[in-house]
């Protein structure tokens, strides 16, 4: 068990007026224990309590380290494992439950009366995960450095006639050559008008002179995720509006990053970028929030949006990714990951952002 992380969750549990919590999300369990169990349809559950023994419920088929640092409760496929879990909880007290707990587990536990009431308490883990410790900060620096190196290699692949899919198919091998473990999400390689399509992946479109080439890519290293977007142009700038759009997105990216420090509201960071784009008349073409939190998952809980009035705190890591999307024409997005420090922020990506014509 990672005691400091467990204590942070228990402190948040106390602030909610709760004493106990059942976690079934594999990523959150890994965060707290250092143990990864890909359980599939089987139950894997971590029971945390402020006043009782913490217990880790694991099927016999999964291997565990010799000294996991938490009480292990083993069971087989035919054991009454939900009754075993219910026997561990305090039925007289409210029970915090995981927002991702499958109904096939939660409903029987509720029918057994394993808690006086049931509260979605995932924010206790989500909030702790949003504030990275030193070990996590270093992991995020390492994986982002790999992403920077990879972006340079991806750019070198961009030639007239190459297709989006031909580029994306080479990315995993390049990442692994540079030391990454895997992709953190399927790469988004978008040429020309495809760059204006939200969540577009990669097709058979070939790159041609004057096209933009938007690369939204990320890798994993030691379980932590990187994410970065850069937009290039092939051969020339086809329209002066494309140059203008690029420069606006870059200005918006830098405007947001310039104000990041502890105590600044996340909605105000979003507003700093959005104002640049709105003042230029493209407000309706910036169609998404400014950023998302990231760590063990490429989209951790939390975002940088106009709706989030929470303030930045040291240890937060999130993306800054303004964009302008002209349907049927061009799309530009520039994305960095930033770490909130005690006095400001550290930009985790060093790959250049000035306009590049390749």
UniProtKB/TrEMBL annotation:
The keyword Metal-binding applies. Residues 5-131 form the Creatinase N-terminal domain. Pfam families: Creatinase_N, Peptidase_M24. PROSITE patterns: PROLINE_PEPTIDASE. Keywords: Dipeptidase, Hydrolase, Metal-binding, Protease. It comes from the Bacteria. GO terms for molecular function: metal ion binding; proline dipeptidase activity. Residues 138-342 form the Peptidase M24 domain. Belongs to the peptidase M24B family. This is M24 family metallopeptidase.
